[in-house]
Design goal:
The protein is α/β, with parallel strands linked by helices. 49% of the residues lie in helices and 16% in strands. It has 12 helices and 10 strands. The strands form 2 sheets. It has a 6-stranded parallel β-sheet with strand order 4-3-1-2-9-10, sandwiched between helices. Strands 6-5-7-8 form a 4-stranded parallel β-sheet, with helices on both faces. Helix 2 packs across helix 12.
Length: 287
Amino acid sequence: MTAAQGNGEATVARADLPIGVFDSGVGGLTVLRALRSALPDERFIYLGDTARLPYGTKSGETVTRYAEQAARVLVGRGIKLLVVACNTASAVALGHLAAVFAPLPVIGVIEPGAAAACAASVSGQIAVIATEGTVRGGAYERAIRAARPAAEVVSVACQLFVALAEEGWAGGPIAEAVARRYLAGVVAERPALDCLVLGCTHFPVLREAIAAATGPRVRLVDSAETTAEVVVECLLRSELRAGQGTRAAGHGGVRFLATDAPARFVRVGPVFLGEAIAPADVELVDL
């Protein structure tokens, strides 16, 4: 067998491996939902670190340690690509993960979300709503200004949105009141503001309440779909897209890992994933 044949067979084998996705909890299922829509033939392993959520209120050092531990579990299962479906972890740990697990491709949600915001905004005035950790790290501001130096960016920590999403209170008067409290003043003070980035994977489920608070002139940007597009491009570029291996097309699926309360994962997860999760598909793991 020639070296070229050996390399080709290795690529075929890698193409059949699953894609690893992790988040601090169930919010990253919004990213998984977009990934599965864009890549129906791929297999996925999703890890929700439900024992230690939320990441957004913890220090950068702690988040980086947690992110590496979660990634190691997925890498140990045999994956071809890692998606960091957590804005906080993407903001503070993406470079560390890429270095530790090289040459495994590692993709976060910050850069795709920033690129989508720059494309969506006409005025260049962009708001970012996220957890405390993501806002504190300033990753969205840096990414947006790198792509569009003249952009004006304001960031707002909206930590209560995470709890509302987790409790299933995505709509109704409570969610709407919280959204107005966080955002009405920001919008009123910036009449040219025309784009708002949902900088946490939990926030898309509160889209209606957020839109009601910001009004029709402000376009909401969810990084999940853009992240999925980046993953597709990476797989094609690396010749790792499913179907290039021996597994037949149409056999994608997902396995879920949770670090605590798998029953709650089964109950709350469908709010974010958009479909039911079977209890048998959720495995309890210890990091």
